[in-house]
Hints:
By secondary structure, this protein is α+β, with helices and mostly antiparallel strands.
Amino acid sequence: MKLKTQHKPPQKPSRSRSHRTLILLRVALPRYLTQEEITRLFAVISSPRDRALFALIYHYGLRVEEATLLSLESVDLKNLHIRIQRLKNGVSSQKPL
């Protein structure tokens, strides 16, 4: 006994389906630190090295990986510039110190 199956041709997505409005769930936006919180953060950092590192991260908005890519060659003390390798766009830039 042979079963009959119906073969349906693939349907094109309807215009309304392709232009469907997406409903975004309400998520909490990132919160920035207040000036008081920044002051308290830097007050508990005792090491000058760590204070300088956190200052660079905060001032230039570096990601952790971008901060780990910094080296002595990244800093130009003569011209007071720092070379930052950005990971997101892959574009490096030179910023004043």
